[in-house]
Design goal:
The chain has 275 residues and is mainly α. It contains 13 helices and 2 strands, in the order αααααααββαααααα. Helices cover 73% and strands 3% of the residues. A hairpin with a 2-residue loop joins strand 1 (144-147) and strand 2 (150-153). The longest helix has 22 residues, at 2-23. The termini are far apart.
């Protein structure tokens, strides 16, 4: 197996290396090399060629091609957020490009793949925030146990969870981890299983939607608001309003999980919806 992999790598290098020496002169030649690199599973070199076409070459006829392939290069290494960013640049900067339909398709697929995915910890602040969230989650999960007499809840554990979630939110408000902590804070309030905390949970989820509207946690929070109003507070009117907000913030996209969930709940609550 190792020998086979070495052979594949050697073939890729043998294919790409001569091209690199021959093709870096003109945008057309660099575009040819970039495509070959993608075929040979060398996305880093493809990215290098695309960036040269876009930023180090005079205005040329290959810039929209390079912009699309730059997104593909990021896609190949699993950097979907960067890939989406490059494809969205293509749509904005080169609206007449033949690559636009494909880029839009890729953007939709990438966003679907990223649903409920979290940003990796990149900075030191993110890593510390991750640690605090882990501690808070541990306290939250330990707060609920079962016995012969029913569910036992340990309020001290939930208070500790609230402390660590709040610490993330206040210390690292601009971190990609802050909306995660804010959302889990709402969950911790629900774990109290006390009507007095249901409104606090709603408020915590509303903060996610208001302060981090583009976060992956925003849709989760918007939907959770409807669920709490429906199942915990028993306020049908507020639940319907919350579920309708989920539809509006996602353009009523029937390929969106949160939209289909909210539509199902609205229909259950007696709301007639357009197909």
């Amino acid at each position: 197996m190792k020998l086979k992999m070495l052979c594949v790598v050697a073939m890729a290098v043998a294919t790409v290396a001569p091209l690199r020496s021959q093709c870096e002169g003109t945008p057309g030649k660099m575009w040819e090399l970039a495509q070959k690199c993608i075929e040979c599973n060398s996305p880093d070199l493809a990215r290098e060629m695309c960036l040269k076409i876009l930023y180090l070459s005079p205005k040329n006829d290959f810039q929209d091609d390079a912009q699309y392939l730059l997104g593909v290069a990021f896609e190949r290494v699993g950097s979907l957020y960067f890939a989406i960013d490059e494809w969205e640049k293509l749509v904005q900067k080169y609206p007449d490009s033949s690559w636009v339909p494909k880029a839009k398709e890729k953007i939709a697929l990438a966003k679907t793949a990223l649903v409920d995915s979290v940003y990796d910890a990149v900075t030191l602040e993110d890593r510390v925030a991750d640690k605090y969230i882990w501690w808070a989650d541990d306290f939250k999960n330990r707060s609920k146990t079962f016995s012969d007499t029913g569910v036992i809840r340990y309020k001290d554990y939930l208070n500790a969870a609230e402390y660590w979630y709040t610490k993330v939110i206040t210390m690292f408000p601009k971190s990609n981890k802050a909306p995660h902590a804010q959302y889990n804070l709402g969950d911790a309030y629900l774990y109290q299983d006390d009507p007095g905390y249901f409104e606090k949970a709603i408020a915590a989820y509303e903060q996610v939607v208001a302060n981090y509207p583009k976060s992956i946690w925003a849709n989760k929070a918007a939907l959770q608001i409807g669920i709490v109003y429906e199942d915990n507070i028993r306020n049908k009117k507020k639940a319907i309003e919350a579920y309708q907000n989920v539809l509006e913030r996602n353009g009523n996209d029937l390929n969106n999980y949160y939209v289909t969930f909210a539509r199902a709940r609205l229909q259950y609550l007696g709301v007639k919806l357009d197909k």
